[in-house]
Design a protein that fits this description.
Radius of gyration of chain B: 19 Å
Domain ABC transmembrane type-1 (chain C): 61-242
Strand content of chain A: under 5%
Oligomer: heterotrimer
Number of strands of chain B: 10
Largest sheet of chain A: none
Largest sheet of chain B: 6 strands, mixed
Transmembrane segments (chain C): 69-88, 100-121, 127-147, 168-193, 224-243
Helix content of chain B: 25-40%
Largest interface: A-C, 70 and 72 residues
Shape of chain A: elongated
Organism (chain C): Azotobacter vinelandii (strain DJ / ATCC BAA-1303)
Distance between the termini of chain A: 32 Å
Strand content of chain B: 15-25%
Membrane topology (chain C): Multi-pass membrane protein
Number of helices of chain A: 11
Chains: A mainly alpha, B alpha/beta, C mainly alpha
CATH superfamily of chain A: MetI-like
Structural class of chain A: mainly alpha
Number of helices of chain B: 9
Main location (chain C): membrane
Chain lengths: 277, 286, 257
C-alpha cells in the first residue's frame, strides 16, 4: 500500500514530526546536504571579507567570531555573563512557574475561580511582555526585580494555560471513575488529575522556559549592565559585531539546550507513563 | 481491435446477467469507444523488503468481460486491494500483463474510475466541486460538465446536496458522492475497494442495492473488492476467491442468478456457505 | 475559555478587575502613594483623551500600524515563498532546512543589534525586524502544512489525472490552508510584538511604543498606562480580525456553519 510511483512530484508527503536537534544532526551527518549550505555560506563570507568585498566592520569574518569566542571563553567573561543571565532566568522562572502552576490548578479545579480570574488573566496575557516593561520600569526601577518580574510574567502565561487546559481536557470518564470510588480531593489530585494533566503541564514548562529565556534577552537588551544580552548591547555600541554574533550564537545555543533537554525529559516521562499502564 | 475483443468473449452462457450489460447501455455512455474488457495474465506483485521481497500477488490470471460485475473476496493480506491498485494504475505490476481492451495498463487514466473505502472527498470542495474535479481536464465545456455532474448526483440520489460540504454529509452520503465522482468521467471500468466497509449494516445494505441499480443502468464493467462474502455473492456475476501468502486466486465461482437479486434468495445462501466453508477448511488445514 | 463562560454573559469576571481599579483609585485619591509618581485612573483617562483630541494618539497609531502592516506583508510573503519551497521540494529542505531550523533557535530580539548595524536605526530597520518576526511562524507553518497533505487525497489526484498545477491549487494549498492561516495568525501577533520592540530599540519616531518609552523617560505614568491599554486593544483587534478571516476562509472545516 505504501509505495507510489517514483515519477510523481508530490510523491512523499507523510506528516512528519518536529525535526529535533538529533534529527537535524543525523540528517546533516547522513546526507551532508544540510551542512553544505552553511559551510558554503561561511566560506563565501570569509572570502568576501578577506578580499574586502564587504567591510569586516559590517560582517566580521567567521574566523574573527571564533577568535572572539575563544578569548571570551578563556577570560571567563562569557561564562560570567551567561551565569548572571541563567541565574535571572532561574529565579524569574521559579516565581512565574510556581504562580502559573497554582493559578492553572486553581482555575482548572474550580469553575468558580475560573469565572473570577480567567477573563482578567486573558486580558493581561493579551498584552505582550514588552508592553509591560515601561510600566514595570517605573514601578520597580531597572534592577534585578524588573528582570525577575518580566521573566516571571513570560513564564506564567504559558504554564497557566497549559495546566488549566490539561486539567480541563481530562476525559470525564476518568473523573467518573474517581466519583464511583468516592475519592477525596487529595486522592483525586494524586491519582487522577495530576497524572492525567502531567503531559500537558510539562509541555507548558518547556514552552514557558523558552519564553522566559527570550524575555530575558529582551529585558537585558533594554536595561542591563551585565548578562548575555548586555554583551550584545556592548558589542553593538562599540561596533564589535563579532561580539554581537558570539552572543547571538550563545543565546541560540542556550535556547536549544533548554528546549531539547526538556524535550528529552518529556519523552522519558511519557515512556515511563506507557510502561506504567 | 476493441470490437473484436468483445466478439471473442461473448457473455458466458451460464451468466444470465449478460443481457443487462448490452441491453442497458445508455447513449453516449461509452463515448471512449472502448468497451471495458479487462485481461490479467500472470500478474505478479512483489514489494522489496530489507531482507528479500514480499510476494503480495502471484500469477493472477483473470478475464473480465465487458459489463461484467466481478467480486473479489479474501481475508486480509490476500492482496485483493493491491490487485485493485494495479488495475487503477496507482501501482505497477512486477510481472505479467494487465490490459484494458487490449491496451496495457500503465499509470492512472480516466478510463478507470475508483471508489476507495474512505470516501476521500476533498473537504474544502463542495459535493458538486468534488465531482467536477474529476472532469478538470475533460474536453467538455463548463455547462456540459455541470450538466454531467448533476446527472451523476441525481444517479446517486444527492441532487439536493450539490452545494453541501463533505463535513455535512453522513458516511453513506459521502460514499455516494465518491461513486458519482468515480462514474462522472464515464470510465470503461469502475473499481471499488471495499467501498462500504466503513458503513453501518443498514446503510451498507442500502448502498449495495443502489450500486446494483447503478450498475444495471450504466452497464459498466465493475470490479468490487470486499471482505464481505454476502456482498460479493449478492452483487457479483462471478466471485473470485483469493487466498493469502502469496496472494493468488483460489477459485472463481459464477453466481447464476439474474439481477436485480433478492437478498434472501436461497441460492445466495448456498453460495455463501460454500465460500465460507472454503475459508474455514483452509484455516483448519493451516 | 470554557463552555460555561462562553454560553452566558458571566459578570464574575469583572469583579477582580473592578476591585483592582477601585484599589488603584483609592490609593491615588487617598494619597497612599506619591501621586507625582503613580498616576490616578482619572489622570490616565485625561491623558488618553488629550492624546485623542490633539490627534497625537491617531498619528502614533497610524505610524505603528503602518510599519506593522508593511513588515507583516513583507515577512509573510517571504515566509510563504520559503515555506512553500521547503514543503514542495525535498532537495530544498535538505539543503536549507537545517540552516533554517538552526537560525530559528536565536531569540528574535537577539537580532536587533545586528539588524541595527546593517540597516541603521530608521524605518527600514524597523520594518526588517517586523518582517523577520513574521517570517519564522509563516514559513514554518506553511512548510508543515504542505508536508501534511494526506497521501490518500494525493492518490485521488493521481486517479483523476490532475496536472501538477491543479494538484497545487486544488489539493496541496487548500489542504495546507489551515496551517498557513495558523502561521499568518501567529505572524500577526508576533508582528505587533515586534512593532513595539522596534519602537523601543530603534531610533525614536512617532508610534505607540515610542509614546510609552517617552512616557517612562519623562516619568509620566498616565502616558505609559494609556499606551499599554492601546497596545492591548490593538493586539486584541488584530487577533479577532485574524480569527474572523480564518473562520470565513476555512468554512469547509465545520461544514460552513
Amino acid at each position: 500500500m505504501s509505495t507510489l510511483q517514483a515519477s510523481d512530484p508530490f510523491r512523499t508527503l507523510p506528516a512528519r514530526p518536529w525535526p529535533t536537534f538529533a534529527r537535524i544532526l543525523r540528517r546533516a551527518g547522513a546526507g551532508g546536504a544540510g551542512l553544505l549550505l552553511p559551510v558554503l555560506l561561511l566560506v563565501v563570507w570569509q572570502v568576501a571579507v578577506e578580499r574586502h568585498w564587504v567591510s569586516a566592520q559590517i560582517l566580521p569574518p567567521p574566523s574573527r567570531v571564533l577568535e572572539t569566542f575563544g578569548e571570551l571563553w578563556a577570560s571567563g567573561d562569557l561564562w560570567f555573563q551567561l551565569s548572571i543571565s541563567l541565574q535571572r532566568v532561574l529565579v524569574g522562572s521559579a516565581i512565574g512557574g510556581a504562580l502559573g502552576l497554582l493559578l492553572g490548578l486553581a482555575m482548572g479545579l474550580s469553575r468558580r475561580v475560573e469565572a473570577y480570574l480567567l477573563p482578567l488573566f486573558q486580558a493581561i496575557s493579551q498584552v505582550p511582555v514588552l508592553g509591560w516593561i515601561p510600566l514595570l520600569m517605573m514601578l520597580v526601577g531597572i534592577d534585578e526585580t524588573l528582570k525577575y518580574l518580566v521573566i516571571a510574567k513570560a513564564v506564567l502565561v504559558p504554564l497557566t494555560i497549559n495546566t488549566f487546559s490539561g486539567i480541563r481536557n481530562i476525559p470525564p470518564s476518568y473523573l467518573e471513575v474517581a466519583r464511583v470510588y468516592r475519592f477525596g480531593l487529595l486522592l483525586r489530585l494524586r491519582r487522577v488529575i495530576l497524572p492525567a494533566a502531567l503531559p500537558s503541564i510539562f509541555t507548558g514548562v518547556r514552552f514557558a522556559l523558552t519564553k522566559g529565556w527570550i524575555a530575558l534577552v529582551t529585558v537585558e537588551l533594554l536595561a542591563s549592565s551585565e548578562g548575555i544580552g548586555y554583551l550584545m548591547v556592548d558589542g553593538r555600541q562599540m561596533f564589535q559585531l563579532d561580539l554581537v554574533i558570539v552572543a547571538m550564537l550563545v543565546i541560540g545555543l542556550v535556547g536549544l539546550v533548554l528546549d531539547q533537554g526538556l524535550a528529552l525529559i518529556e519523552t522519558r516521562l511519557r515512556r515511563w507513563q506507557r510502561q506504567a499502564f | 481491435m476493441v470490437g473484436k475483443a468483445c466478439g471473442r468473449f461473448p457473455p458466458d452462457a451460464t451468466d444470465s446477467s449478460g443481457f443487462t450489460v448490452f441491453g442497458n447501455q445508455r447513449e453516449g455512455c461509452f463515448s471512449m469507444s472502448g468497451s471495458g474488457f479487462l485481461s490479467l495474465h500472470g500478474v505478479h506483485k512483489r514489494f522489496p523488503l530489507k531482507d528479500g521481497e514480499l510476494h503480495v500477488l502471484e500469477d493472477i490470471s483473470l478475464d473480465i468481460r465487458q459489463g461484467e460485475f466481478v467480486s473479489i473476496v479474501g481475508g486480509s493480506g490476500c492482496g485483493k486491494s493491491t490487485l485493485l491498485r494495479l488495475l487503477v494504475g496507482l501501482e505497477e505490476a512486477s510481472g505479467g500483463s494487465l490490459r484494458l481492451d487490449g491496451t496495457p495498463i500503465h499509470g492512472t487514466d480516466p478510463a478507470r474510475g475508483i471508489v476507495f473505502q474512505d470516501h476521500r472527498l476533498y473537504p474544502w470542495l463542495t459535493v458538486e466541486d468534488n465531482v467536477l474535479l474529476a472532469l478538470a481536464n475533460s474536453p467538455l465545456d463548463k455547462a456540459e460538465r455541470l450538466a454531467r455532474v448533476h446527472a451523476h448526483l441525481e444517479l446517486v440520489g444527492l441532487r439536493h446536496f450539490a452545494k453541501a460540504w463533505p463535513a455535512q454529509l453522513s458516511g453513506g452520503m459521502s460514499q455516494r458522492v465518491a461513486i458519482a465522482r468515480g462514474l462522472v468521467n464515464r470510465p470503461k471500468v469502475l473499481l471499488l475497494d471495499e467501498p462500504f466497509g466503513a458503513l453501518d449494516a443498514l446503510t451498507r445494505a442500502q448502498l449495495q442495492d443502489e450500486l446494483a441499480r447503478i450498475w444495471l443502468t450504466e452497464g459498466i464493467t465493475t470490479v468490487l473488492v470486499t471482505h464481505d462474502v454476502d456482498e460479493a455473492v449478492l452483487l457479483g456475476d462471478r466471485v473470485v476467491v483469493m487466498e493469502p501468502r502469496p496472494g493468488r486466486i483460489r477459485r472463481i465461482i459464477p453466481v447464476d442468478l439474474p439481477h436485480p437479486r433478492r437478498r434472501d434468495h436461497p441460492r445466495l445462501a448456498e453460495l455463501r456457505s460454500d465460500i465460507l466453508q472454503d475459508f474455514t477448511r483452509r484455516q483448519a488445514v493451516a | 475559555m470554557s463552555e460555561a463562560t462562553r454560553k452566558r454573559p458571566d459578570l464574575r469576571g469583572w469583579v477582580v478587575p473592578a476591585a483592582l481599579l477601585a484599589l488603584w483609585w483609592l490609593a491615588t485619591a487617598q494619597e497612599w502613594v506619591d501621586t507625582r509618581l503613580v498616576a490616578s485612573p482619572a489622570a490616565v483617562l485625561e491623558a488618553a483623551w488629550q492624546a485623542a483630541v490633539s490627534g497625537e494618539l491617531w498619528r502614533g497609531l497610524a505610524a505603528s500600524l503602518g510599519r506593522n502592516l508593511s513588515g507583516f506583508a513583507l515577512g509573510s510573503l517571504a515566509g510563504l515563498a520559503f515555506g512553500g519551497l521547503l514543503g514542495l521540494s525535498r532537495l530544498a529542505e535538505r539543503l536549507v532546512g537545517p540552516t533554517f531550523h538552526a537560525l530559528k533557535q536565536i531569540a528574535l530580539f537577539a537580532w536587533i543589534p545586528l539588524l541595527s548595524a546593517w540597516f541603521g536605526f530608521g524605518e527600514p530597520a524597523k520594518v526588517a525586524f517586523i518582517a523577520l518576526a513574521v517570517f519564522y511562524p509563516v514559513a514554518l507553518n506553511s512548510f508543515e502544512g504542505i508536508r501534511s497533505t494526506r497521501r490518500e487525497l494525493l492518490e485521488v489526484a493521481r486517479v483523476l489525472g490532475l496536472t501538477p498545477t491543479q494538484r497545487l491549487l486544488r489539493l496541496v494549498l487548500p489542504s495546507a490552508a489551515p496551517a498557513i492561516f495558523t502561521g499568518l495568525h501567529l505572524g500577526l501577533i508576533y508582528a505587533w510584538l515586534a512593532t513595539l520592540g522596534a519602537e523601543y530599540f530603534f531610533s525614536a519616531a512617532p508610534g505607540i511604543g515610542n509614546t510609552m518609552i517617552d512616557g517612562r523617560e519623562h516619568f509620566e505614568m498616565d502616558q505609559v498606562i494609556y499606551g499599554l491599554l492601546v497596545v492591548g486593544a490593538v493586539g486584541l483587534v488584530l487577533n479577532r480580525l485574524a480569527a474572523w478571516i480564518e473562520a470565513r476562509a476555512l468554512a469547509w472545516r465545520d461544514g460552513g456553519r
